[in-house]
Amino acid sequence: MTEKQNLISEGKAKSLFETSIANELLMVYRDDTSAFDGKKKEALSGKGSINNKFNAFIMSHLQRNGVETHFLKQTSDNESLVKRLDMLPVECVVRNIATGSLCRRLGVKEGIKFEEQPLFEFFLKDDDLGDPLINDNHIIAFKWGTADEIEQMKKITFEINKYLCKIFDDAGLILVDYKVEYGRYDGKLILGDEFTPDGCRIWDKETGESLDKDRFRKDLGDVVESYQIVAHKLGVKV
Ligand code: CDP
């Protein structure tokens, strides 16, 4: 087990610690679960461990396909070692099917499929403001990122979508939408944060059942059990 040093940030579901190596951090996945900008909270036993393993599986798959990520290695049941990034304060949301906030915001029908090209949206990472929708110009005007970084985020995110849609589809699942975040490392922009069922929507291809954090948002129960079903179908060792 890698030794934790100073706590540098405590998010809603993960804590980040310094290690004895300056540019390596330990990411600790907790059981805490939150939704609606932190207004709904609960600890779900076993969630930290499954998310850590799920994330390790997805990040490793992306790396094998040439997508650079901050993930270095899983060091325990609920901890992983990552590269220290200078994170951009923006969230990239990719949608293959319309649902959630998109439908509320634009009054469009649930279930519209974006077959030609997935829908890509930027949000500002700010819970107090409810993570507002922003565009490329906001990012440049407020220096949250450069024009080149915006292009990089779009390019890498579309690549990620291609690789992930395939493995979910092969596993009998639909990757409906998700959020990714990027950070700077050694002059480059690379994938940071996590990819877990906490930050995406996954539906069963046959039944249409939600197997992600919507189960928590909508009080459907069996949250961790559903994450386990997805992990099992994808071949994640839990
Ligand atoms: O989840 P909600 O309906 O509020 O927002 P959304 O814009 O429909 O979310 C799109 C996707 O991004 C979902 O899979 C969310 O779980 C994910 N997301 C996230 O993980 N973190 C955020 N701060 C916002 C969205």
Automatic annotation (TrEMBL):
Involved pathway(s): Purine metabolism; IMP biosynthesis via de novo pathway; 5-amino-1-(5-phospho-D-ribosyl)imidazole-4-carboxamide from 5-amino-1-(5-phospho-D-ribosyl)imidazole-4-carboxylate: step 1/2
Cellular compartments per GO CC: cytosol
Family designation: Belongs to the SAICAR synthetase family.
Lineage: Bacteria, Pseudomonadati, Pseudomonadota, Gammaproteobacteria, SAR86 cluster
ATP-binding found in the keyword field: yes
Highest taxon of the lineage: Bacteria
A GO term, aspect molecular function: phosphoribosylaminoimidazolesuccinocarboxamide synthase activity
Reactions this protein catalyses: 5-amino-1-(5-phospho-D-ribosyl)imidazole-4-carboxylate + L-aspartate + ATP = (2S)-2-[5-amino-1-(5-phospho-beta-D-ribosyl)imidazole-4-carboxamido]succinate + ADP + phosphate + 2 H(+)
Keywords, alphabetical: ATP-binding, Ligase, Nucleotide-binding, Purine biosynthesis
Nucleotide-binding recorded as keyword: yes
GO BP terms, alphabetized: 'de novo' IMP biosynthetic process; cobalamin biosynthetic process
Short name of one Pfam family: SAICAR_synt
Location of the SAICAR synthetase/ADE2 N-terminal domain: 8-232
Family annotation (InterPro entries): SAICAR_synt/ADE2_N (IPR028923), SAICAR_synt_PurC (IPR033934), SAICAR_synth (IPR001636), SAICAR_synthetase (IPR050089), SAICAR_synthetase_CS (IPR018236)
Designated name of the protein: Phosphoribosylaminoimidazole-succinocarboxamide synthase
